[in-house]
Amino acid sequence: MIDVSKRFFDLPFEERSKYMSTEMRSPVRYGTSFNQNKDEVFCWRDLLKLSCNPLSDVLPFWPSSPADLRPAVVNYSKNTKLLYLMLTEAILESLGILVDSKKNENENDGLREFENGSQLIVLNCYPKCPEPDLTLGMHPHSDYGFLTLLLQDEVEGLQIQHEGRWVTVEPLPGSFVVNVGDHLEIFSNGRYSSVLHRVLVNSAKTRISVASLHSLPFESTVQPSPKLIDEANPRRYKDTNFASFLDYMSSREHKKKSFLESRKLT
Ligand SMILES: O=C(O)CCC(=O)C(=O)O
Ligand SMILES: [Fe+2]
């Protein structure tokens, strides 16, 4: 995936620019920063966003060059989805929401919604930068979805905020970084907290990463699980959905955990 991503970003600009779109809902979007229509300050980042739902509908829109990009992303999306479902099952179990799946099929209908969930693959390229101290590859943000599986190449850059400090996430070959997103924070009524992260750039090496963002189906309402709410644990977040996030993204600059903040009740 890293290799084919690199070759996509090495294509001439005329080829890459065919996939530029101002439409946040487009099945393919090549661009820079987060949302180049609204961001006041651009990030030192190029991105190719590929929507994966449903694959048969979106595939014809994905880049036809490099020739192996489509099959590589299809294969990658299927495998990351399986890993995501395994992690989600463990998370639901940790929250006490999932009962033994072999014993009680109906109780676990909740997991089915995750199986039919949305998936976006984002290829990120952070070119080497002559003045890395003056910019960022990505400004601090949390991911909107449930979980993000992130693959990074060997170049450092990703940092997460931990106890008020920025901590570099060392790239480990062949491993994924798993980020908790806003939807999981909302769904768990705050028991899981979405992670604030950012990307630094450097003057020596271009950095490539591939993020696979997973959540409930696009049309679903994301809300705190009723099983986690009682008198002692009141609901802390308003309902949300993918459409309201996209409207938010299209209308203003997305900073820090601003979307999540807008969903908080307390
Ligand atoms: O490039 C990275 O390491 C992080 C990318 C990221 O945060 C994102 O795509 O949302
Ligand atoms: Fe992110």
Automatic annotation (TrEMBL):
Principal cellular location given in the protein's record: cytoplasm
Any GO molecular function: L-ascorbic acid binding
Highest taxon above the source species: Eukaryota
Gene Ontology CC annotation, any one: cytoplasm
PROSITE patterns linked: FE2OG_OXY
Keywords: Cytoplasm, Iron, Metal-binding, Nucleus, Oxidoreductase, Vitamin C
Subcellular location: Cytoplasm; Nucleus
Residue ranges constituting the Fe2OG dioxygenase domain according to the UniProt record: 116-216
Pfam families noted in UniProt: 2OG-FeII_Oxy, DIOX_N
Transcription regulation recorded as keyword: no
Stated role: Involved in the regulation of shoot development and salicylic acid (SA) homeostasis.
Cross-referenced PANTHER family: OXOGLUTARATE/IRON-DEPENDENT DIOXYGENASE
Family statement drawn from the similarity comment of this UniProt entry: Belongs to the iron/ascorbate-dependent oxidoreductase family.
Entry protein name: Fe2OG dioxygenase domain-containing protein
Organism: Carya illinoinensis (Pecan)
Organism lineage string: Eukaryota, Viridiplantae, Streptophyta, Embryophyta, Tracheophyta
